[in-house]
Amino acid sequence: ARDPSVDLDRFERLVGLRNEENERLAIVAFNEAFAKLQAELPAVVMTGEVIIPGRKPQKYPKLEDVIKAFKGPGGLYGFSLSGRISYPAPEVVAVTTILRHSSGRSDETTLQGGFDKSGGKNAIQSLGSTISYLRRYGQITLLNIAVAGEDDDAAGVSEHITEKQVAE
Question: How far is CA 72 from the centre of its chain?
Fold first, then answer.
């Protein structure tokens, strides 16, 4: 770079080519490690439960169970999770979940929702509940983690369609 006889345009093109190759190698490393991670991520069991008077208890996967499922295999293959919170509108929070890899590559997803005011929560509890929910489902989505017991093939449906509705 200090040598005045070096063709600056050629030097810039070579640096650009090197950067493109480094990026390609980082993508390959990320994808290979993610495939290995996917093979080892266990399904998360819905151990959380919300009791709503007059209704069947609602089950959900706990955030700590999602994080626990990720930590061992995630660290083994060079991954880490982090997040970012923003407020795109009044009483709306957005949580961005970021999956980073030691290669320098990352992937992310953003989920947003209104503050959860159910169950008589105060303003801070309402915000905290929404953030927890969005963190949990952002991680599940980004990591493609299976949730055991999430899909019962409509077995829990109390009403079924009629033969006439099937024909229509």
Answer: 17
Q: Under a CB-based contact definition with an 8 Å cutoff, are residues 122 and 116 in contact?
A: no
- Give the span between the Cα atoms of 104 and 71, in whole angstroms: 19
Handedness of CA 67, 141, 31, 21 (dihedral sign): negative
Query: Distance (Å, rounded) from C-alpha 130 to C-alpha 132?
Result: 5
135: which 2 tokens? 């963190």
Summarize pLDDT for 57-79 with one digit per residue, the tens: 889 999 999 999 999 999 999 99
Helix (H) or strand (E) holding 106: strand 106-114
Q: Residue 48 carries which DSSP code?
A: E
What is the reported pTM? Answer: 0.78
User: In angstroms, what CA-CA distances link 34 with 14, 70, 119?
Assistant: 30, 12, 39
Query: 3-class DSSP state for residue 98?
Result: strand
- What do you get for the CA distance between the two ends of the chain, in Å? 74
3-state secondary structure (DSSP) of residue 5? coil
